[in-house]
Amino acid sequence: MQTTLVAAFCAHLLGYLIYRKLVRVPGIAGAGSIFPTFALSYGTIFLIIFFWRLDYSRFQAAGSFAMSTLWYFGMSIVSRRLSPRELAVVPGGAVDVLTEIRDVVWHRVRTPTTPPAGVSGIVVDLRADLSDEWERFIADAALAGIPVYHLKQVLESLTGRTDIEHLSENTLGSLNPNMLYLKIKQALDWGCALLALIVLSPLLLAIGLAIRWDSPGPALFRQQRMGYRGQAFHMVKFRTMQAEQPAGRSREAAVTRDNDSRITRLGRFLRRTRLDELPQAVNILRGEMSWIGPRPEAMALSELYEEKLPFYRYRHIVRPGITGWAQVNQGHVSSVDEVLSKLHYDFYYIKNFSPWLDLVIVLRTIKTMLTGFGAK
């Protein structure tokens, strides 16, 4: 009885702390992250108790989990109804892009008189050439206790993208990932990859045999890709296309189109569920990849994007991943304009490099595997 109460309190507290971190990530709906968050915290705590062979009540543990999730579901619904997110917008600069963002009530300030009431903050493009009246208006709003946000700051927090227009000392500093977490993450990646290869070996063998039966050719596909710190490596994955597809460094051959005729019947299923990526655990063991990070591009495409897009090489400052922030938000892309948008997601990931963002990506990847979002 006492063990169950203490464990339930610890699990609830852990779930609350994780939940607070996750809901700060752009695009994360509070209600949608409640169940997986508390399932993770309760599962972790009671799994520890199970291995320590301590007595506890399964009924009370399940009841505590249900009460925690239902409580936060209710609080999420009530808070959304009582306090919708409302922000005031000061005219000038590039603030018109804010109208494309949903789930926020935007109030345009017409005249620099009294700061608006009932808003949770004021958004202004601080790079715009503002008049003295508007600058005094912004100062008065800050003195009145109303938060004032720079346009770029709001765009990042709401869209999960970091746009970079020019180099500066602040830009370079913000794109340096936390080196301590980089080392910890590499160790975790290596351990999880080794465990995955051992546990999933029967599944990997079955998929390999199914590929050989479905179409002629090898079960695995190897391709040279651009990796960590700009070093090329050979990525391995299950073959999902006809073996007679064009070879070499052709840019046209490296692009996968919508409804690509080269994809096999089994390959479409493997791509939709992302099971074709599992052999890349070998690349993780070699230190060439991570479970989570910017997706590595074929050499031909990487060279093309480096020619067309400024700062593209910055994405190589962390190890490429099997899944990543761009993949769970945008899916597969092919055009240069789409790749530029993907690059902004990659920069956001690098700038906000943390275990909390990685946890969000893991949860979204599970959803992606179940729905097939972004597959080609």
Question: What can you see in these coordinates?
Answer:
With 376 residues, this protein is an alpha/beta fold. Helix content is 52%, strand content 9%. It is built from 15 helices and eight strands. It has helices spanning 2-22, 30-51, 58-82, 132-143, 151-159, 169-174, 179-199, 201-214, 251-254, 265-273, 281-285, 299-308, 325-330, 336-351, 355-371, and strands at 86-89, 105-108, 122-124, 148-150, 220-226, 232-238, 290-292, 321-323. The chain has a four-stranded parallel beta sheet with strand order 2-1-3-4. The chain has a two-stranded antiparallel ribbon with strand order 5-6. The protein has a two-stranded parallel ribbon with strand order 7-8. A hairpin with a 5-residue loop joins β5 and β6. α1 (2-22) runs antiparallel to α2 (30-51), α1 (2-22) runs parallel beside α3 (58-82) and α2 (30-51) runs antiparallel to α3. The longest helix has 25 residues, at 58-82. The chain is globular. 29% of the residues are buried. The model has no long low-confidence stretch (mean pLDDT 81).
What's the gist of this structure?
The chain has 15 helices and 8 strands.
Shape: globular
Low-confidence stretches: none
Order of helices and strands: HHHEEEHEHHHHEEHHHEHEHHH
Total of helices: 15
Largest sheet: 4 strands, parallel
Mean pLDDT: 81
The radius of gyration is 24 Å
User: Which strands sit side by side, in order, in the main sheet?
Assistant: 2-1-3-4
SS-based class: alpha/beta
Which percent bin holds the helix content?
A: 40-55%
Task: List strands and helices in order, with pairings.
Layout: H1 2-22, H2 30-51, H3 58-82, E1 86-89, E2 105-108, E3 122-124, H4 132-143, E4 148-150, H5 151-159, H6 169-174, H7 179-199, H8 201-214, E5 220-226, E6 232-238, H9 251-254, H10 265-273, H11 281-285, E7 290-292, H12 299-308, E8 321-323, H13 325-330, H14 336-351, H15 355-371
Parallel strand pairs: 1-2, 1-3, 3-4, 7-8
Antiparallel strand pairs: 5-6
Helix pairs in contact: 1-2, 1-3, 2-3
